[in-house]
Design goal:
InterPro entries: Iso_Racemase_Enz_sf (IPR053714), MaiA/AMDase (IPR026286). Pfam families: Amdase. There is one protein chain. By secondary structure, the protein is of the alpha/beta class. It is built from twelve helices and nine strands. The protein has helices at residues 27-34, 54-59, 61-68, 85-91, 93-101, 112-123, 136-148, 164-167, 172-183, 204-211, 218-230, 241-245; strands at 15-21, 40-46, 76-83, 105-106, 109-110, 128-132, 156-158, 190-193, 215-217. The strands form two sheets. Strands 1, 2, 3, 4 and 5 form a five-stranded parallel β-sheet that branches. Strands 7-6-8-9 form a four-stranded parallel β-sheet, with helices on both faces. The protein is globular. The N and C termini lie far apart (55 Å).
Length: 247
């Protein structure tokens, strides 16, 4: 038998972890588009319901630790993100972080709600128009959490779609039409397209140009916050004022 081949180990890239809902079809592709290749993005999935209700969202808390434990056991993360806006609002950001930290080594844990609050602070947004795909009781919890952070949502609209399989297929024209209608209903500092399963990145630049407002989305703010916390520079192609004004 021949001797083992010689090899050298290359430098480790900053590891970023992403906990994605079993039912989500959009966020992983968006995050790989937004996070540069020098950030080593590792993904796991958490069981989630086919329909989004307060009950199915709350059930995820009990599975978060198991999902995070499926990351490579030797990984040391600069940041881990839980990719669910409404789930975070329902479970609570501290509880999300506690479940993930119990399973993996991570410098920081974030999610779209904490990321949105940080993005609003960075952009000076206090009056936020909110568009959600979900039923009123789910969206209402998110609005209450934002109110606790002193972010008003004076205008709100929803597609009232509970099924995740349909949410991922809401088209860009529907998002644009909803945003244009909502922005005309009250003075706003910005607009938020809520839900990691909505495909929002392609509509952000045109909406910002038409509305003259920052337009934020769940996947955009989560990627921005994870990179910011991990000390990774965002790529120049990242869409939206959020990336342009906080470089």
């Amino acid at each position: 038998m021949s001797a083992p081949l010689p090899y050298r180990l290359g430098p480790a890239r900053p590891a970023l972890g992403l906990v994605v809902l079993q039912s989500d079809e959009s966020v992983e592709a968006d995050m790989r588009r937004l996070i540069p290749q020098r950030g080593n993005l590792l993904v796991t999935r958490v069981p989630s319901g086919a329909e989004v209700t307060p009950e199915t969202l709350a059930e995820m808390e009990g599975h978060l630790g198991q999902a995070a434990a499926l990351f490579p056991p030797w990984a040391r993360f600069s940041a881990v993100g839980y990719a669910c806006t409404s789930g975070t609002a329902q479970i609570g950001a501290p509880h999300v972080a506690a479940q993930i930290r119990a399973a993996v080594e991570a410098d920081v844990v974030t999610e779209p709600v904490s990321a949105l609050i940080a993005a609003c602070a960075a952009l000076g947004v206090r009056r936020l128009g909110l568009i959600s795909p979900y039923v009123a009781e789910v969206s209402g919890r998110l609005r209450a959490v934002l109110a606790e952070a002193r972010i008003e949502t004076p205008v709100f609209a929803s597609f009232e779609v509970p099924e995740e399989a349909r949410v991922a297929r809401i088209g860009p024209q529907s998002l644009r039409d909803a945003a244009m209608r909502l922005a005309g209903e009250a003075p706003l500092d910005g607009l938020f397209l809520s839900c990691t399963n909505l495909r929002t990145l392609s509509v952000i630049p045109a909406l910002e140009a038409e509305l003259g407002l920052p337009v934020l989305s769940s996947n955009q703010v989560l990627a921005w916050h994870m990179m910011r916390l991990a000390g990774i520079a965002a790529p120049k192609r990242a869409p939206g004022r959020l990336f342009m004004q906080t470089r």
